[in-house]
Amino acid sequence: MITRFLTDVSVKFNPFSPRSKSARLFLSLIPPTARSDGMKIESKMLPRTSKEPATLDVKFKDGKEMKIDVEKMRITEVMEVVDRHSRQLARKEELLGN
To answer: Known Pfam families for this protein (predicted)?
Structure first.
């Protein structure tokens, strides 16, 4: 997963719910040095009895914000959505020579 173009990641999930698996796995795929590289990561764990849905909000360096419904998507689909925009930013950066 391409994370160098992410600036903010906000995740809210119930760790005991099987529908929150994609949210948990997404957090585990973020490299340990991400915070020191300037990424803002917020995670909120909901109580076991919570009926609130799991959410994932991602913000990119170009200002684009994505709200991803992680309850209905597998982790491969979530990664595909995030990587698609990251690859576009990488191409743009490469063409501009930055």
So the answer is: MRP_L53
Q: What is the pLDDT of residues 17-27, one digit of tens each?
A: 999 999 999 99
Q: What is the separation of C-alpha 33 from the centre of its chain, rounded to a whole number of angstroms?
A: 15
Domains in the chain, number? 1
Q: What is the pLDDT of residues 46-70, one digit of tens each?
A: 999 999 999 999 999 999 999 999 9
Core vs surface per residue 46-76: b (16+ CB within 10 A) or e: beeeeeebbbbebbbeeeeeeebebbebebe
Distance between CA atoms of residues 58 and 63, nearest Å: 10
Residue 1 included in any domain:
no
User: pTM of this prediction?
Assistant: 0.88
> Which structural domain, as residue segments, surrounds residue 83?
6-96
Q: Are 68 and 78 in contact (CB under 8 A)?
A: yes
